Amino acid sequence: TKLPIAIAAMREVDRGAWSRDQVLTLEASDRTTVSSALGQAPAGTRFTLDQVLSALLRGSDNTAYQLLLRTLPAGSLEAMVEAVGLEALFDADGRISAREYARLLRTLYTSSYLRETSSQHVLELMNASGFPFFLRGAVPDSVPFPHKWGSYPDDDTSLDAGIVYVPNRPYM
Question: Which of the four, 11, 40, 41, 74, has the lowest number of CB atoms within 10 Å?
Answer without folding.
Answer: 74
